[in-house]
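User: tokens in, sequence out, please.
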């Protein structure tokens, strides 16, 4: 049987896009089960957009303020994803909470990476909170997105030690290194288990 074509993936970003870059890099490998077909940002000035464009990936940006409300904004995100025939969405530093309607439309086909060992430290400032708790280790999680923030089924996790003398910056850098290895592996696993979103 011939190998299935790679799934078409959109990466949603808001900023520097280092996880996005690690996914783009991984997807260049022959046999990787996903193709990065779109990078979409909610901030036109996001540095990651330039990185994606330089890699030859189609990009789009949409600003909330150009839409009357969150439902209209998320409906447009859905239209852009459909227009690019996207099969699977990866949130990578996308700093908006999506509406339940959009999340439900992509249930089982939308991933996020979060910088903690979920269910610990949902939300922001995860490195500060792990340090304040005196934890011995910290890490990152790739999970399916559900309407409740940082709460969907876990696909994969990576652990890093918290070392004496760590501050939030040194810990964030260690976790980010782990994120860059984890997300491409998790995406490959999920993409390999799915078929196209809709048969044309
Ligand atoms: C990462 O720490 C990720 O876990 C979190 O937002 C950050 C995005 O960083 N969701 P980058 O834009 O991928 O560099």
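Assistant: Sequence out:
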């Amino acid at each position: 049987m011939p190998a299935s074509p790679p799934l078409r993936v959109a990466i949603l970003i808001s900023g520097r896009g280092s996880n996005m870059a690690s996914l783009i890099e991984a997807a260049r490998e022959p046999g990787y089960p996903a193709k990065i077909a779109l990078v979409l940002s909610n901030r036109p000035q996001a540095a990651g957009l330039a990185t994606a464009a330089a890699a030859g990936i189609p990009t789009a940006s949409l600003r909330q303020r150009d839409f009357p409300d969150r439902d209209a904004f998320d409906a447009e995100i859905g239209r852009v994803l459909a227009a690019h025939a996207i099969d699977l969405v990866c949130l990578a530093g996308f700093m908006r909470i999506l509406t339940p309607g959009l999340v439900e439309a992509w249930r089982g086909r939308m991933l996020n990476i979060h910088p903690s060992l979920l269910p610990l430290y949902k939300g922001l400032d995860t490195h500060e909170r792990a340090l304040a708790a005196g934890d011995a280790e910290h890490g990152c999680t790739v999970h399916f997105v559900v309407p409740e923030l940082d709460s969907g089924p876990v696909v994969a996790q990576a652990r890093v030690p918290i070392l004496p003398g760590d501050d939030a910056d040194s810990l964030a850098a260690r976790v980010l290194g782990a994120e860059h290895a984890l997300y491409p592996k998790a995406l490959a696993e999920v993409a390999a288990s799915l078929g196209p979103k809709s048969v044309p």
